[in-house]
Amino acid sequence: MKKIAISACLLGEKCRYDATDNRDDRLLAKLDGNTLIPFCPEDHAFGSPRPTMDLIQTEEGIKAISNNTGADLSVAVEEYAKHFFDKHPELDLFIGKDRSPSCGVCSAKLYDEHKELISLSETGLMAKEAKARGIDAVDAEEYDL
Ligand code: SF4
Question: How far is the C-alpha of 120 from the C-alpha of 10, rounded, in Å?
Answer without folding.
Answer: 21
